[in-house]
Design brief:
15% strand; 4-stranded antiparallel beta sheet; rod-shaped; 482 residues; alpha+beta; 5-stranded mixed beta sheet; single chain
Length: 482
């Protein structure tokens, strides 16, 4: 459909230019023809009259120093150049010389007769007689006669030749108009076709016109506009994609925030409800609640658990908002893990879990000591708490040197347990616990591994968590040190 429209437009502009050019050429042809027909005779008559008058005036001027015999050459030359009859005669009418009648004597009757008969036939003619003075000669008269009949005949021939001239002019005019219109409109139609593609947001082809004129400037301007539009559209598309991504991230954050507040409310509601029941039972001395010391101790433990939960929530909030002040310094990673392990030996002994350390001394990393301590304490504590009785927890610290770079890795493996592959990464989500009853006796707050994840992201530390042959492995890789 677009091609048909473009074709009709092309025909329209070509037709217009063809018609206008044809009319202009034909108008000029008619104007030239009319000018020749109406003004050429008058112009020719005036030109011929001036030429004859100036010529005879020159002869009269030169004759004052010449004899009649010497002036014959001038008269002959004048007659030939102007196609005129010129003769000398005395005052009595006796012709003494004429280039056409070269004789002496009284020949007046024949010349006059010839002249008179010619004047009768020819109305449009030049006939002048002027006095002329020769050297040592009596006064004479010079007479000039010339007819304008040839130009009248030419006008009549021009009228008769009009049909043939018209055919030639029309053919040449139409042919020239067609070639001219095609030559002019071809680059315009090409530019229009490319401009239509640009209007349809197709910038795959540039306009190429080599004419060293305004058309080339127009094509260059359209190409520049096309490139600018394409760049602007690319920028808008990128910005739109970024905006969509930002909106999607905001939605996910908002969804997580709602889920987080709902989970926090649930985490706090349960212990508060239990505490309220204990306190009401003690107030009214209901049954076993008369033993206030026992239930006060239980309430104290619940409050400690809630206090720990609040501290973890605050730590998580600081890490998420990047307001936790990171203090990077050289840290003895070997001593840090040894200290954490000693603090958690008590929990391991309660479950008869063996902790095996393979930690070489004095391995240093450049990081934040406090954040590393919090992260590894959570990792090792989870390894102990979620291992069955009688299992083993392996702690291994290694250092590798490759191409003048040192890479330090920490492995924590707890045996006797496996986690489904689809749940491995969910463990790093806030408040996610494998134990669905959400009992704090069998599981923690669900924030431990999430805090570990946020710490490692803040410190640019790589980590992985996966099943191995005899258990679960948490692998931490520190940035390479040159």
């Amino acid at each position: 459909m677009n091609r048909i429209v473009n074709f009709m437009k092309m025909k329209k502009i070509t037709y217009k230019l063809f018609m206008i050019t044809s009319l202009i050429l034909l108008s000029f042809a008619v104007l030239i023809y009319l000018t020749l027909y109406f003004f050429l005779p008058t112009f020719y008559e005036q030109y011929k009259t001036n030429q004859l008058q100036s010529g005879i005036a020159e002869i009269i001027d030169k004759s004052k120093s010449l004899t009649v015999r010497e002036a014959k050459e001038l008269l002959d030359e004048y007659s030939k150049e102007n196609n005129a009859i010129i003769y000398l005669q005395e005052k009595n009418g006796n012709i003494i010389y004429s280039p056409s009648f070269n004789f002496q004597g009284n020949t007046q009757s024949s010349i006059i007769t010839g002249k008179t008969s010619q004047n009768e036939e020819t109305v449009n003619a030049f006939n002048h007689s002027l006095p002329i003075q020769f050297l040592n000669e009596r006064n004479l008269m010079v007479t000039v006669f010339a007819t304008f009949q040839p130009i009248d005949e030419a006008s009549q021939v021009l009228v008769r030749f009009l049909p043939y001239i018209s055919i030639i002019v029309v053919c040449i005019g139409l042919g020239s108009a067609y070639l001219y219109s095609r030559f002019i409109t071809k680059p315009l139609l090409y530019i229009n076709e490319r401009a239509q593609k640009m209007a349809n947001l197709d910038f795959s082809e540039n306009i190429v016109v080599r004419s060293n004129d305004e058309l080339e400037e127009l094509s260059n301007s359209l190409n520049e506009m096309s490139n600018n539009l394409q760049k602007t559209m690319d920028d808008l598309r990128i910005a739109n994609e970024q905006l969509k991504g930002d909106i999607e991230r905001e939605r996910k954050i908002e969804t997580k925030r709602r889920e987080f507040f709902a989970t926090v409310a649930h985490e706090l509601k349960t212990p508060l409800t239990v505490m309220k029941g204990y306190i009401e039972g003690m107030i009214y001395n209901i049954g076993p609640y008369e033993n206030r010391d026992f239930y006060l101790e239980k309430n104290h433990k619940i409050i400690e658990g809630m206090e720990q939960l609040v501290r973890e929530i605050l730590s998580m909030s600081k890490l998420e908002q990047n307001i936790f002040k990171i203090q990077m310094k050289e840290t003895n990673l070997s001593n840090l893990i040894e200290t954490i392990t000693k603090d958690l030996v008590f929990f391991a002994s309660q479950k008869e879990i063996t902790v095996i350390n393979k930690i070489p001394p004095n391995l240093y990393v450049f990081s934040d000591n406090d954040l590393l301590e919090k992260a590894f304490k959570n990792i090792i504590h989870n390894a102990i708490m979620y291992s069955p009785h009688g299992e083993t927890v392996y702690l291994e610290l290694t250092e590798d040197s490759k191409e003048n770079q040192i890479q330090i890795q920490v492995q924590v493996i707890n045996t006797g347990v496996h986690i489904k592959a689809e749940e491995l990464q969910q463990l790093f989500q806030p408040f996610y616990r494998l134990e669905k009853s959400r009992n704090r006796n069998t599981g923690g707050s669900g924030l431990g591994l999430y805090i570990v994840k946020q710490i490692f992201i803040s410190l640019s530390i790589n980590y992985s968590f996966n099943n191995v042959e005899n258990g679960i492995r948490f692998l931490v890789t520190f940035p390479q040190i040159k």
